[in-house]
Please model this.
Amino acid sequence: MPHLTDPRPQLTERLREHGIGPTHQRIEIARALFARMTHLSADQVLAAVNARHAETSKATVYNTLKLFVEKGLVREVIVDPTKVFYDPNMAPHHHFYDVETGEITDIEADRIAIGGLPSLPPGKVAAGLDLIIRIRSGA
Amino acid sequence: MPHLTDPRPQLTERLREHGIGPTHQRIEIARALFARMTHLSADQVLAAVNARHAETSKATVYNTLKLFVEKGLVREVIVDPTKVFYDPNMAPHHHFYDVETGEITDIEADRIAIGGLPSLPPGKVAAGLDLIIRIRSGA
DNA sequence: CAGGAGTCTGGACTCTGTCTAACCGCCCGC
DNA sequence: GCGGGCGGTTAGACAGAGTCCAGACTCCTG
Model:
């Protein structure tokens, strides 16, 4: 009975598509993000990777996450001043951020209409658009 | 010839309006923000205050900025994972963030139309809406 | 098998922000 | 005025995220 759903081949493929040489550590880090498909902070990724066999250093996790962002494999979500979250969902979308629990939830982009975007300062191009709706419990 | 534009009385007044007891340190911190009307990080505020006569400790600057945010005197802008910026402009508006220079620029709210905001998760209320457009130089 | 480029590692380090315990000063009741 | 209390301030130790560095490792190529 062969392993039915080993994700490593798909992950290797996906890394290659983005011009990232697949190494053991990079595959494990990609697995941590794409297996869960949730927003993880760098230290959550580190913990998830090391909870399995693969021992990986903090520096490698930080370097790799930065590389993934540069190569367009994941997206940075900056909502909490104390840590950065990494979002494996690259489809256009926005975020709810619960300021009490720290929970981040996706909002599909086509559920919000943003119109009349202003002209950019001269010589500048858009590098990203983040709409963050902060929420808390209450009446 | 009396001092024509000493801002301290206005600042004292403004602090009182927001239920903040005016102390020397708080007035100096408010002055640093409102004299410039730009986005400053906590350590920039600390440097600005201490560049004048007033010696003020790091803890007081952090405590005071947090107090100002609670009382609705200034607004936190979270765009850079390494530090929080404080924005004395409380009128509804959004932000450009230059990822290369770190510069933050205001966009008046009525220049952007955001429609069809999604329903919030049950039991939650909106606590703020931040639209950040990241820009960089380039073609 | 040797060389080299690229990758990984642990640990020291930096920096923003928090905490704590003592101190100060202002105001209020007497 | 005088004393006491309490909010505000302080310096410095501390915590946690992220960076840096020099050395070691891996894997590909010739």
Summary: Chain A has a mean pLDDT of 90.
